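hey can u check if this looks right to u? its 255 residues, i copy pasted from the old doc so theres a chance i mangled smth
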Amino acid sequence: METSWKLASVVAALASYAWVLASETSLDARDWHDYPDFSSLRQEIGWQDDFSDICESDPPFNKMRTLISDGNPGEAARLGRGWLEQCPVDIRVHHLTYVALTESGQPEEGNLHRDWAKGLLDSILATGDGRTPETAYVTISVGEGYAFLYLLRLQLVGRTTVKDEVGRPVGDVLIVKDSDGNELALHFSPKAHFARIQAAAESVPAEIFRRLEEAIGPPPDDPEEARKAILKWIRSLPPEEREEITATLRNINLL
């Protein structure tokens, strides 16, 4: 356990070690050189009613990784630029856009996205130390916690959800390993994410919610996994019910 907490004490140092300052330039669309207050920006976007639509609906992260791996960084950069115009707080896509632009011969532009990724990561690190539920890293989504691990090169081993006295989810514990195999439990508090889950649950008509819960159990915390589970249930319904329930769930942004 002592080794784990020694690892915790160097997480912030890892973040600083991983980045250097970038060159200055500007882009045609969003001015990425205009560095904002990253904490305020994350809060502003993370608590928007349409956050799931703009930042969690089919992000291009995996497509970009495949394109870069296949030797097509230019197309990966195009996908990254487009996505970041609608979701400028996506840390992983900023990092991959930096990689793609650097590999396609546009390092100055890429460095701006590297700086944005660093700024967003630093704003998470400033919220706590991750050692306890009380000092958890505060994130705006579950995906942001995974982005944290991605940039610090920590391997996810397991995940559990922390619940309050009435059973509502209030935090995540991510079990991770570093490159030396040291294991560590990091606490995250994706408050905005759990608020969205609660709001969605309260918006579902009681009968539909009852049937949905019977079919899939408690909704998965990961938005994409929850969506897949709901769609699987809908496909199992008789045709006459399928259209009505689909429309209802779309109206309250569950699909």
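Strands lie at 137-138, 155-163, 169-177, 183-189.
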